[in-house]
Structures are given as structure tokens and as C-alpha cells.
Amino acid sequence: MLEHGGKLLEAAKNYNTPIERWMDLSTGINPQAFPVSSIDPEDWAGLPQDNDGLTQAAQTYYNARDLLPVAGSQAAISALPRLRQKGSGIAILQPAYEEHKHAWREAGFAVTDFVPNDINDAVEQHDVVVLINPNNPTGARFGMNECLDWHRTLQKREGWLIVDEAFMDTTPEQSLVRVADRPGLIVLRSLGKFFGLAGARVGFVFAHPIFLDFLRELLGPWAISGPSRTIAKLALTDHYWQQKMRLQLDVNGQRLKNLLIQYDLAPSGGTDLFQWVQSSEANLIHEILARQAIWTRLFEEPTALRFGLPGSEAHWLRLEQALQDVQAKVQL
After folding, report:
1. What are the φ/ψ torsions at residue 153 (nearest 5 degrees)?
2. Segments making up each domain of the chain, as ranges
3. Terminus-to-terminus CA distance in the chain, angstroms?
4. How many C-beta neighbours within 10 Å does residue 248 have?
5. Which of 192, 274, 273, 194 is nearest to 241 (CA)?
6. Residue 114, beta-bridge partner list
7. Ramachandran sector of residue 174 (left: φ over 0; alpha: ψ -120 to 50; beta: rest)
8. Among 158, 189, 261, 308, which residue's Cβ finds the most Cβ atoms within 10 Å?
9. Is 47 helix (H, G, I), strand (E, B) or coil?
10. Measuring CA to CA, which residue among 207, 175, 173 is closest to residue 70?
């Protein structure tokens, strides 16, 4: 199992601090999650139904026709290598969400890392290229036209371009989902980040219909629970909440960036939901914050921290006070 953000129970035990005192900034999940109302008991009692309107709600929200609901994008990440012939060369952006590399290696594929400046070479020399756009954890972005050029190059030899768009919801105009019906282009989306519904485990795969049929057969029936389907439909159809939240996250993302700059931790990149701070002192900063029950995501290569958004004014104040402590104790 790979390391991920979250894991507050483990942090609480390691630092001997009650779980209720912790502020979790480690995941990049929206702390102002879509409000979940009570669930109809029938959603718990009956088997999930494919014709319940979830697919139609997703088609409207994403402005895309060909999609498959899955149990979070993680389910697709784990399954995709099983649909590719062995012997394919796989290139995956680094640093990035490590589950992509883990899934391909566990399936027996050789994986090559590449950095953004080397993407053209990666596309020329490999059969499958995996991008995270915007990238997690660095926030780096790739333009739609660039991605489509890379896809065309790969498709000439029946290659794939896989694009994980988990953090794309605040900038939907930059998404590839509208053109993902092209053979060899596979786009992943999730309700975990923007909607703050990571626990519901709902995601979508956008691809050519024939490819989606193969993936559907591989994953089997009832991929998403009935209650999660109901919650997802509500979230995807609440356009007022979506518009309001995009504006709020734009403000909060800039506020976090400015706060970090104020205390000599200028981000190297980020999105509206997190900021990425590279620092040779990342381990020490992580430790100082953890001792104040503020949990960040520590990365070793390169040494860096990911800061998610505080969820309340009290949390913003706590973070600022902790950053003052960091500034006083760390030579930045």
C-alpha cells in the first residue's frame, strides 16, 4: 500500500494528540463539501440501478456523452493495466499521484518516469503515457491542444493517452472529457476533490464506447453503492452550488498562496484546492506543524509539502499562527 494524505488516526496516535484537535490539510479535498441530505432507506436496501439517472446527470455536468461510472477514479486506475497488452511501454509523469505507477508495475509492465520538459520524448518512445492534469501534487497544467497533439501521435500506433483530471472541476473549460470518445484517449474524473465527497467513492471514465464496454465487463455490476449514486446525482445537478463553490475556491486558493508567501513559503505550484511548496526543510516544517495538530502531506522526492485549504476561519487563524512558529524556527 502506498502512502497518501489523510491518515489522521495514525497521526493522532503517533503524536499522542486527540483526533478532534487535528486540522487535515494533507489531501487537497474541498473542506467545504457538498452538503449531503438524509438518504432514503430504500437506497440502502435495494441493489443499485444503472438507469437511475446518474449517467444522465454526469453527461450534463461534464458535457460528454460516453462515460462509465466507477467506484472512484482509483477503481479505473487499478483496472486499466488489465486492458493493455503486455510488452507495452508505459511512461508516467513524475512527481505525480503514485497509484498510477503502482498499478502498472503491479500488472507486470515496465514504467518509465518523465518530467514535464520531456513529455514529447515520452510520447514518441512509449505506447501508453499517463498525465495528471492539473498535476497532483505540483499543480502543473497541460493545454488541451498539447494533449490532443500527444494523443494523435500515440494513436498512430494504437497507443493510449490517459489523463487524470481529478482536480479539473474548478476549470471545466480546460477538460478533455468532451473529446474523450476518440480511440486511445482515456480521461478520469472524480467527485472526491471539488465536491469534497471522497468517501462516496464515485468517479467516471470517459473514453471510446467500445473501450468503456470492455472496462464495464472487467469491473462487473454494482460498482457504486445506491446511497453514493443518490448523493452523486444531487451534487452533479446542483448548478448553483457548483458556481458558488468555484468562486469561493478561487478566493480561498489565492488566500492560501498569499499566506504561504507571507511566511517565506512561496509555492512552486498549485491549484484552487492545494499549494505545493518545495523546500529542503520540508521534513522539519512538517514536524513543527504536526506537533500543533496540523497535518500536511510530506513528499521526499523532491522534498516538498502539499497544503490543502483550511475549512473555517478558526482553522485559517491556526494555520497562520503555526506558520509564524515555522518562520521563527526554520531558516527559510
Report:
1. -65, -45
2. 8-28+240-329, 41-237
3. 33
4. 14
5. 194
6. 93
7. alpha
8. 189
9. coil
10. 207
C-alpha cell at 200: 462516496
Overall CATH class of domain 41-237: alpha beta
User: Helix (H) and strand (E) counts for the chain?
Assistant: 12, 13
For the record, the C-alpha cell of 201 comes out as 467513492
**Rounded Cα gap, residues 327 and 332, in angstroms:** 7
Task: Tell me if the bond preceding 134 is cis, omega within 30° of 0.
Answer: yes
Instruction: Tell me the C-alpha distance between 224 and 202, whole Å.
Output: 7
Q: Which residues are 303's β-sheet partners?
A: 300
| CA separation for the pair 131, 118 (Å, rounded) | 12
- Contact status, residue 123 vs residue 154, Cβ threshold 8 Å: yes
Residue keyed to cell 488516526 = 9
Report the distance separating Cα 33 and Cα 202, nearest Å: 14
SS3 302: coil
The torsion angles phi and psi of 187, rounded to 5 degrees, stand at -120, 135
| Cβ atoms 269, 306 nearer than 8 A | no
pLDDT in tens, the chain (332 residues): 555 566 788 888 888 999 999 999 999 999 999 999 888 888 888 889 889 999 999 999 999 999 999 999 999 999 999 999 988 899 999 999 999 999 999 999 999 999 999 999 999 999 999 999 999 999 999 999 999 999 999 999 999 999 999 999 999 999 999 999 999 999 999 999 999 999 999 999 999 999 999 999 999 999 999 999 999 999 999 999 999 999 999 999 999 999 999 999 999 999 999 999 999 999 999 999 999 999 999 999 899 999 999 999 999 999 999 999 999 999 86
CATH superfamily for domain 8-28+240-329: Aspartate Aminotransferase, domain 1 (3.90.1150.10)
The letter for the amino acid at 170 is T
